[in-house]
Amino acid sequence: MAKKQTIVERVFGRGKVMMGRIITLWSVLFFAWGASWAQTEERIKRLDWNGIEVVWIEDNRLPLYNVVFYFADGALSDQVEGRGMVPSTEMMFSLLDRGTNSYSFKEISDNLEFYGTNYRPYVTHEYSTYSYSGLMKDIIPASKMICHLFRDATYPRDEVDNAKQLAISGKNNMVRAPDALASRVFRELSLSGSSYNYPFDGKIKDIKKIDRDELQTKLKYFNQKVYKKIYIAGPSDILQIKNIINDECGWQGRGGRFIRSGNYRQSKREKSEYYFIPVKGATAAYVRIGSLFGKENFFELAPLELSSTFLGGGFTSKLMQEIRVKRGLSYGISAFAARQKDYGRVGIVVSTDNAKIPELFSSLKDVFAEVLQGKFSEREFKAARGYLMGSYAFRFEQSSAYINQLLYLDHIGADASLVYQFPAMTKKTTKKEMVEVLKKLFSLNQQVIVVLGDPSLSTILKPIGDFKAVDFNDFL
Question: Which of 209, 211, 217, 446 is a good FRET partner for 326, with 20 to 30 A between their CA atoms?
Answer without folding.
Answer: 446
